[in-house]
Write a structure and sequence with these properties.
Mean pLDDT of chain B: 97
Radius of gyration of chain A: 21 Å
Number of strands of chain A: 9
Helix content of chain A: 10-25%
Number of strands of chain B: 8
CATH topology of chain A: Immunoglobulin-like
Shape of chain A: globular
CATH architecture of chain B: Sandwich
Oligomer: heterodimer
Strand content of chain B: over 45%
Order of helices and strands of chain B: EEEEEEEE
Structural class of chain B: mainly beta
Number of domains of chain A: 1
CATH superfamily of chain A: SoxY domain
Radius of gyration of chain B: 16 Å
Distance between the termini of chain B: 36 Å
Number of helices of chain A: 2
Largest sheet of chain B: 5 strands, mixed
Low-confidence stretches of chain A: 1-7, 13-30
Strand content of chain A: 35-45%
Mean pLDDT of chain A: 84
Strand order of the largest sheet of chain B: 2-8-7-4-5
Distance between the termini of chain A: 41 Å
C-alpha cells in the first residue's frame, strides 16, 4: 500500500518532514497572528484610503521588554500643531502579531496635544504600528518593536 | 458595576495644557479566552470612550479586545473655558458608565 521512500531519502529527512507536518497541523486550526497583509488592509481602511508614509514625528513609547503581555503600557505622540484646520485628527494603533491586529482608534480635536496613553495586550514579540491621520487627510506612520516575554491573549 | 475614575487639575489658567487621566475597572473579556471547560468566554469589553467639555467633543476612542483589563486612557486638552467635563464609557452590553467634573479656568 504505502510507497516506500526512495533510497536517497534518509531516516533523518523523513523525521524532519514529519515534525514539520505536525507543527503545521497544530497551527492550522486557528491563525495565531494577523499577517502583515491583514494589518496593511486594516490600516488602509482606518486611514481612509490614504497611504501612510513612515514619519519620525510619530513616536511610540513602549517598554523594550514587556514581561507581561497582558498589560503593556504605551504612549503614542505626534509632533504636530493642534490648531483648527491643522491638527492630528486620529491615531490608530495596530499590533500585527496579535490574533486580531486592531488595538484602538483615538480621535482628537484641535486642543491640547496629539498624545495618548493606554495599555494593551500583546500575544508575542512584534512591531507595533501607529498611524496618525492629519486634518488634511495625510496619514503618517510610526513603528516600534517590543519583545514580549509571556504573551497576553488568554489562550 | 464598574466604577470610573478621572484625574486632572480642576482649576487652571487659560491656555494651560491639562492632562486627563482616566480609568475604569472592567475585565475587557476579549472573546478569545477559554474557561476551565474549554468553552470560549464571550467577548464583553468597553468599546468606546468619549470626553466632552460643555457638550463639545474633546477626545474619543474606540477600543478593541486588545486593550488591557481596567482600561486606562490619558489625553490632553487646552483650558479655554470653565464648565463641565463629561466622561462616557460604553460597554458591549449597551451599558453606559458616566462621570462629570467641574473645570474652573481663570
Amino acid at each position: 500500500m504505502s510507497t516506500s521512500p526512495s533510497a536517497s531519502i534518509g531516516r533523518r529527512t523523513v523525521v524532519l518532514g514529519l515534525s514539520a507536518g505536525a507543527c503545521a497541523l497544530v497551527l492550522a486550526p486557528k491563525a495565531a497572528e494577523a499577517t502583515r497583509a491583514e494589518a496593511d488592509e486594516l490600516i488602509a481602511k482606518l486611514a481612509g484610503g490614504a497611504k501612510p508614509q513612515m514619519d519620525a514625528r510619530v513616536k511610540i513609547k513602549l517598554p523594550e521588554i514587556a514581561e507581561n503581555g497582558n498589560t503593556v503600557p504605551f504612549t503614542v505622540s505626534v509632533d504636530h500643531p493642534m490648531v483648527a484646520g491643522n491638527s492630528v485628527t486620529a491615531i490608530h494603533v495596530v499590533a500585527e502579531g496579535n490574533p486580531a491586529p486592531q488595538v484602538a482608534s483615538f480621535h482628537f480635536t484641535p486642543t491640547g496635544k496629539a498624545e495618548v496613553y493606554a495599555r494593551m495586550r500583546l500575544a508575542k514579540t512584534q512591531e507595533v504600528r501607529a498611524i496618525a491621520v492629519l486634518s488634511d487627510g495625510t496619514a503618517l506612520e510610526g513603528r516600534k518593536e517590543v519583545k514580549v516575554t509571556v504573551g497576553g491573549c488568554g489562550g | 458595576m464598574p466604577t470610573p475614575k478621572v484625574k486632572f487639575n480642576e482649576t487652571a489658567a487659560k491656555g494651560d495644557i491639562l492632562e486627563v487621566k482616566t480609568m475604569i475597572d472592567h475585565d475587557m473579556e476579549s472573546g478569545q479566552r477559554k474557561d476551565a471547560a474549554g468553552k470560549v468566554v464571550p467577548r464583553k469589553i468597553i468599546n468606546a470612550f468619549a470626553c466632552t467639555l460643555n457638550g463639545k467633543m474633546l477626545f474619543s476612542a474606540e477600543l478593541a479586545p486588545a486593550i488591557s483589563a481596567n482600561p486606562a486612557l490619558n489625553f490632553f486638552f487646552t483650558a479655554t473655558e470653565s464648565g463641565t467635563l463629561e466622561f462616557k464609557w460604553t460597554d458591549d452590553d449597551g451599558s453606559v458608565y458616566g462621570l462629570s467634573r467641574p473645570l474652573t479656568v481663570t
